[in-house]
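Shift notes (night). Ran ATP-binding protein while the centrifuge was going.
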Amino acid sequence: MTVSIDLGTIKLGQPAHMDLEELLATRLLVQGNSGSGKSHLLRRLLEQSAKWVQQIVIDPEGDFVTLAEKYGHAVVDAVGTEADLSMIAARVRQHRISAVLNLEGLDADRQMRAAAAFLNGLFDIDRDYWYPALVVVDEAQLFAPAAGGEVSEEARRTSLAAMTNLMCRGRKRGLAGVIATQRLAKLAKNVAAEASNFLMGRTFLDIDMARAADLLGLERRQAETFRNLDRGHFVALGPALYRRSETVKIGAVETSARSSSPKLMPMPELNRENFDDLLFKPGTGDEPRRAIAPPTQTTEQVLHQLATLRLDEKFAGETEPQLDLDPGISAQERDEILHAILVDLLAEPEAAFQPVSVLYQDFQVRCRIDKSFKTTPDLQEFRQLLAVARAGVDEIEESLDEDQWKQAGTIADQLPEDMRGVYLLLSKAALGKKPCPTNLELATAYGTRSPSRARFLLTYMEERGFLVCANDLRGNRIVTLKDLGIQTEPGSPD
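Came back to this:
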């Protein structure tokens, strides 16, 4: 079946069609200066193809979140960790949910890291979930820059690698990249070169016009065409569009962006004598402030939505696991059962070194098998339970001072979640009058095999005043926990 979507009109009012199946195989590049109508084109493309294919939008300005109300896109706010975003992306593909990654409000470095994590989550999914999907990246020059800028080199490389995977290797995984950029000169060439379809809008700089002409196979003298294009008009070429270049006028859209182009309006009539009162009088706190619209769905809501969906429609006729049994258990019994499940999970070979997202999925399966409670813990609670389980507190729990252990847990909550297990392991050793854990034990509590990573963790916590490290004359390490006023016995780091 051939699916054609309506982009608008070409000359003489004839409809302009795009072959959606061909687009999935050949990818698309959209170029045009600010105000040329790129976002309008992308919105038209998304609206026309919404019922035919899954859509994933990387949205740096939050313009496409309005698709959620009419077309049911899930809005993913980039407020969690990179691991959380990768996990959400995997679930988006697994359950074939159209989604918008909202990067509004993040600086350039964080936008690149968040987009890279999300794209990698889409890319690294199991072969069973390689469903076709349009991946639309607006302002692609931010995520695949041709040269380094003010962002960190690590963020640039990570983001560029993710964009390269999308455009170069994504086709076999069902991912069809649709990238839009203001300037071709700012976009990495190896990313732009993988597109076979082009929609070129209004462009003024000579270097961008020349490069656009090269991509379309036009002569240099024909490059002036791009300077004379009206807003919303694009020169189209490619196997999913036209074999010869055609000028397309993009049609109307049904949704609108939260931001729009400024409109002219008359200046207010003001008395110049009142300027001092208007501008320099002390504030009262009643001045109007920019209202930030709440997101359509928070990340937590998206996680809950994805976690409760079925794996695929093919399971529609099967009976769901009965998780709504009335357990009648106390909070203490619930914690004990969850801790026992986690201990068994971590006892599996290589479990201590698996990513949190993988462990959480395994944990959910074990909880459903156990059938002791109605709902499984969310990701936040799981991370807290995992930190305690990795510290192995149950081995000497009876000998620990209860008040000091609660205080240690309170202090650990001030650290990043993946470091809490390390602090609790040190607290357990100090409270139990045990030697300081080795680098390997600390690394295992953190979820890695790298002893050098353990040394970095100790340095990190020492710099922030949580502990003090010292060596005795034999080279054994002693860790003093400042807030608890206790220290470990000397222990060899190796």
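The first strand starts at residue 4 and ends at 9. Residues 328-494 form one domain.
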